[in-house]
């Protein structure tokens, strides 16, 4: 049996210098059965009917005869629908990512030269992307989601006059069996740049572009392009801030949009471990809603505070969020994670005090092995508790501190405006933090 292309041919590579065909020689367990059939085995009574039809060409005559049974889409494309789809056709304007399964055959060939079925994975591409074969792109544009169709596509829209030897003959028209699995509107990342200056203060004009930008940003999130999504969401926020509103209805609509945008930005900054920026987004959100009544915002605020070591405030935010959404598993998990962190830091702090008092034991050995960042977190927890407690002005520190630990404490003192000092006791330095007098 002839071997299969391991990746689709990229048309740009074909035009600019050619391509090297990569052939699958190793078979996955999932498709070994089909790949190992020899010519006489095709059509075996034990083979699943659907798989059988997918693995061999549905037409053994000439393509001219087949075109006679198809609908003419254009000069170079003929189509026959095998299974109808649903939904709306592709609009003339817009950007879409499609997911397709396909099998491609040359004339009079039973076996596909390219097949997502044998690769056990669908193919995704953006409509209009120059890397895709123009004939396949044009064929998919005629389909509805869920549709399965056959297309005879002329060589002019595929591999051209030269073909792609040895797999694809010169001037080779091809039969494509395509199933449109899914289509996704990916929006327009440059939508706002297409606004004329005179329209930049018109809420009606701007909101249309913002909708496209939000769709694009959401798609970026799905592809894990978080930084890009943040840029686009931020552009949307900035554009809406410039709008002039003419009615209470527009004010309500803008408020809801801003709430969604700022909440998404807080979420993305948290995913990128930029907790301070996440808190900045939540603070900006307060201009548009009461955050104490917004479970999603409280959840993001709690996560950010957790990362910054502000455990008490983080707990307040997450508990309030859970009151609003008692069945939310994400909030429940965040609270559980927070409590685990607090327990861990208390254990480390207790161990440090045991070291200071000269009490040996397993905890002491474990503390010695802890990395510097763990000491920093434990020290930060103690400092935050001290700062929050208004009735205490002095925080006594362990007697035994390494140079590295002392350096960490000095940094924390500067960060929280605390005075790090020591008293001499039997020729030993006993360190303490003191709150500086407010001017």
Automatic annotation (TrEMBL):
Domain of life: Eukaryota
PROSITE patterns: FKBP_PPIASE, TPR, TPR_REGION
Entry EC no(s): 5.2.1.8
Catalytic activity entry: [protein]-peptidylproline (omega=180) = [protein]-peptidylproline (omega=0)
InterPro entries listed in its UniProt record: FKBP6/shu, PPIase_dom_sf, PPIase_FKBP_dom, TPR-like_helical_dom_sf, TPR_rpt
Any coiled-coil regions, as ranges: none
GO MF terms, alphabetically ordered: Hsp90 protein binding; peptidyl-prolyl cis-trans isomerase activity
GO terms for cellular component: cytoplasm
Pfam annotation, one family: FKBP_C
Record keywords: Isomerase, Repeat, Rotamase, TPR repeat
GO terms classed as biological process: piRNA processing; spermatogenesis
Residue ranges of TPR repeats: 295-328
Residue ranges of domain PPIase FKBP-type in the record: 95-184
The protein's enzyme class: isomerase
Family (UniProt): Belongs to the FKBP6 family.
Protein name, entry field: peptidylprolyl isomerase
Species annotation: Anopheles sinensis
Lineage of the species this protein comes from: Eukaryota, Metazoa, Ecdysozoa, Arthropoda, Hexapoda
């Amino acid at each position: 049996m002839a071997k299969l292309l391991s990746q689709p041919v990229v048309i740009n590579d074909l035009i600019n210098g050619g391509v090297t065909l990569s052939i699958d020689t190793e078979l996955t367990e999932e498709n070994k059965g089909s790949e190992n059939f020899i010519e006489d085995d095709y059509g075996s009574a034990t083979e699943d009917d659907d798989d059988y039809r997918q693995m061999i060409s549905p037409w053994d005559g000439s393509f001219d005869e087949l075109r006679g049974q198809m609908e003419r889409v254009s000069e170079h494309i003929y189509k026959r629908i095998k299974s109808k789809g649903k939904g709306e056709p592709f609009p003339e304007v817009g950007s879409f990512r499609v997911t397709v399964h396909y099998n491609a055959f040359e004339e009079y060939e039973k076996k596909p030269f390219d097949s997502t079925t044998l690769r056990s994975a669908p193919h995704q591409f953006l409509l209009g992307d120059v890397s895709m074969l123009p004939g396949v792109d044009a064929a998919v544009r005629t389909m509805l989601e869920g549709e399965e169709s056959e297309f005879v596509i002329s060589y002019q829209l595929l591999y051209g006059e030269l073909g792609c030897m040895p797999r694809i003959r010169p001037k080779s028209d091809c039969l494509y069996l395509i199933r449109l699995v899914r289509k996704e509107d990916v929006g327009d990342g440059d939508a706002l740049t297409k606004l004329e200056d005179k329209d930049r203060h018109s809420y009606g004009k701007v909101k249309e572009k913002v909708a496209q930008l939000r769709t694009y940003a959401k798609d970026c999130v799905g592809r894990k392009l978080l930084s890009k999504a943040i840029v686009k969401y931020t552009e949307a926020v900035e554009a809406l801030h410039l709008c002039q509103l003419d009615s209470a209805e527009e004010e309500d609509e803008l408020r809801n949009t801003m709430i969604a945008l700022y909440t998404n930005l807080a979420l993305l900054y948290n995913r990128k471990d930029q907790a301070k920026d996440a808190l900045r987004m939540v603070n900006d959100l307060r201009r548009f809603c009461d955050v104490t009544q917004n479970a999603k915002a409280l959840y993001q605020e709690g996560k950010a505070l957790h990362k910054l070591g502000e455990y008490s405030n983080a707990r307040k935010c997450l508990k309030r969020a859970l009151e609003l959404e008692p069945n939310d598993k994400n909030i429940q998990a965040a609270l559980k994670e927070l409590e685990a962190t607090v327990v861990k830091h208390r254990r480390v702090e207790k161990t440090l005090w045991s070291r200071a008092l000269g009490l040996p034991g397993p905890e002491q050995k474990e503390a010695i092995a802890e990395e510097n960042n763990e000491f920093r977190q434990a020290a930060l927890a103690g400092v935050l508790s001290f700062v929050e407690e208004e009735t205490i002005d002095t925080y006594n520190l362990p007697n035994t501190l390494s140079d590295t630990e002392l350096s960490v404490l000095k940094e924390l003192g500067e960060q929280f405006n605390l005075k790090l000092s020591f008293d001499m006791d039997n020729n030993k330095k006993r360190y303490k933090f003191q709150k500086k007098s407010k001017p």
